[in-house]
Amino acid sequence: MDVKLALSTAYHPQTDGQTEVMNKTLKTMLRAFIDNKQSNWDQLLPSLEFAYNNAVNASTGYSPFFLNSGQHPRLPTALLGKPNSSVPTVDTFLTEQATTLALAQDALQRAQDHQEQQANKRRRDHKYKVGDKVLLRATNITIPADSIRPADKLRPQFLGPFTLLEQHSPVTFRVELPPFYKIHDVFHVDTFRPYLPSPESLGIRAPAPVDPTVIDGEEEYEVDEILKYRFYRYGREADEWLPVSNLDNCMDLVTTFKEQHGIIF
């Protein structure tokens, strides 16, 4: 089937594939010909869904119906020409369905045209590349230092600078984040702002240090390397040795230490 897993980028719902696009398109279609009281949306939804699935996708060149079943579905209009209907209400129903479907197809086209126009207005070519330093929009990102900041409105709007490590797609990059951020490190370029260092005429100013993680009023330190170990049966004595269970956030270092010393515990 050649199915591939495509993860969305952090805090950029536009990357959520067909689901996000379909929901937005259906909302636009409903808005186009729903009644004034918005009471008939449930009656229109089946026809809108049918029209959406029967429309040719600009990216694939096929309709979802065709890709799913290998053929195009029969439309209500294909049944209207059948003579000698023994149930008059059937013809009435088919006519109403054909009319609703035509309206739905028209609404779908208008929705697609509108979304394309709006997307083109906001779309800008970016010049980011691997190795660049960028600022990251702070919206929807909570860092440990926020716990001591009472006013969200006064939080910094951008965090960083951070280095772009890898380009995942034309519009997404993997960003070098501090380990205590604990968020997905792939972001859309819309969340970036170019980092501009101070001009040399103003002297060299180092970037503001990243706020440390504070837990229960004490600063958290990142483990750099494991030097030695001690078996539990030897007793604690007067040292400051820590149990391995305290090293949940650096188990890669524990594994490296075990491999270097041939230890199994």
From TrEMBL:
Recorded hits in InterPro entries, A to Z, give: Chromo-like_dom_sf, Integrase_cat-core, Retrovirus_Pol_polyprotein, RNaseH-like_sf, RNaseH_sf, SH3_Tf2-1
Please state every residue range assigned to the domain named Integrase catalytic. 1-72
What are the recorded GO MF terms, alphabetically? nucleic acid binding
Under PROSITE patterns, the record lists: INTEGRASE (PS50994)
- CC annotations in GO: nucleus
Q: Which GO terms describe its biological process?
A: DNA integration
What is the name attached to this protein's record? Integrase catalytic domain-containing protein
Q: State the organism named in the record.
A: Entomortierella parvispora
